[in-house]
Amino acid sequence: MPSTVTLTTAPLTAGEVVDIARRDAAVEIGAEALRAMAESRAIIDALAEDTVPHYGVSTGFGALATKQIPHEQRAQLQRSLIRSHAASSGRPVDREVVRALMVNRLATMTTGRTGVRPLVAQGYAALLNAGITPVIGEYGSLGCSGDLAPLSHCALALMGEGEVFDRSGARTSAGEALREAGIAPVELREKEGLALINGTDGMLGMLLMAAEDLARLFTTADVAAAMTVEALLGTDAVFAEDLHALRPQPGQIESAANIRALLAGSPLIAATKDGEHRFTRVQDAYSLRCAPQVHGAGRATLAHARQVADYELASAIDNPVVTPDGRVESNGNFHGAPVGYVLDFLAIAAADCASISERRTDRMLDKNRSHGLNPFLADDPGVDSGHMIAQYTQAGIVSEMKRLAVPASVDSIPSSAMQEDHVSMGWAAGLKLRRAVDGLQRVLAVELLTAARALDMRDGGVAASSSSPGVTAVRTLIREHVEGPGTDRFLAPEIEAVNTLVAAGSLLDAASAAVGQPLR
């Protein structure tokens, strides 16, 4: 059974958001949060009766903020806001993105700084717990004034309108899904529509999930590099602790420590030190020798991104916002620049990690650089092509990742009749980062599959492994899912099998168990 996360006025952790988004943890709202929402709602109710206009309470929105709305039309104002802003287009974004967006918005509601009724927050919790996921097209958010269109689709579902996916994944009307789940549609009151759509929740959710994935993938890159060093009869001398202490970049030091642990006790490395290459192989190519520097830079980028994410998780983003002393103030905290920048930054780090992995793979396939391996690791070169086209697949992915590394956050297109004249494009940065993360995972899978084949060709297979204990454990797990070297066969399922192992973290678990310590 999934765990339960209780929302209070305190920030959620990154892990809690991801547990709800990805692993269907249940959501409940604590009494403290319910009180805080009721108190701030009382402030909004008082302003609703004021003859002085208040933005989002008794006025229109955006460039229409100068128009005061009569009391009898304010429920229609909220409905119209949500219906008109639910204007996304394109293929539906992934379920986990929508759930992360919803829980981040719910977490802001429970701070008591938005002025929504507890009923509204309870409605979002009910949707999440029922597995009801609003259908949101990939286009529509500019990442400023919040992820407006995506968040509007979620508010529309709360109203019982629009389309959703039910728990089984079937696409249906929101009204039908709510009836099946026993959830009553909510009629929004003053300010509530605006409070449901003014936040960086979607881009933040994508950042949190990418951070979890990249932490696993940067460590997996260390495993792949260690295997390739063995396969290419490289040296472990460059990973020495004292060398990396000369440049105390924390991520680099962690990566080098991982590779040292993975290569410890390797008969192949020991044989290389004493064999024919000891005089001619003074140093390895950059893609081997500089792996900790590149993988470590990715870790440093990730550490910075996580700090930004933690700040955003601790935020109560709305416009206007109800301050702790009872004021209702307009502000610009919905601007997605901080999140958009790090989403773009991580896409750069992912692309470079994939690029160095592809270069290592290519060295194993080139008979002029592989130190005795068959061309393309083919069983019968000429008759067989081995992993020739697997490297093409890597190259195609890396090329796309370089395009995805072009920042989205440097762009801005004015909107809302120039009222919203500078926007972040953070939503777009998040979507392209998700594609980049998937690409990095697949590139690493090809390197791991290729290195396992190269090592099998060195020593005849894992039964007679001349690898270190850590590398042997990874090779053994791969061989449980993919056959060893032989004549050419359908390669795509083998790549996918290793990709699945990388995604599940199974290879990291096997390597960590074998070296006797968690790889970081």
UniProtKB/TrEMBL annotation:
The keyword Zinc does not apply. One of its GO terms (biological process) is L-histidine catabolic process to glutamate and formate. It catalyses: L-histidine = trans-urocanate + NH4(+). One of its GO terms (molecular function) is histidine ammonia-lyase activity. It holds the Pfam family Lyase_aromatic. The keyword Lyase applies. One of its GO terms (cellular component) is cytoplasm. InterPro entries: Aromatic_Lyase, Fumarase/histidase_N, HutH, L-Aspartase-like, Phe/His_NH3-lyase_AS. Pathway: Amino-acid degradation; L-histidine degradation into L-glutamate; N-formimidoyl-L-glutamate from L-histidine: step 1/3. Keywords: Histidine metabolism, Lyase. Its EC number is 4.3.1.3. It is found in: Cytoplasm. NCBIfam families: hutH (TIGR01225), PRK09367.1 (NF006871). Belongs to the PAL/histidase family. This is Histidine ammonia-lyase. It comes from Sediminivirga luteola. The lineage of its organism: Bacteria, Bacillati, Actinomycetota, Actinomycetes, Micrococcales. The gene is hutH.
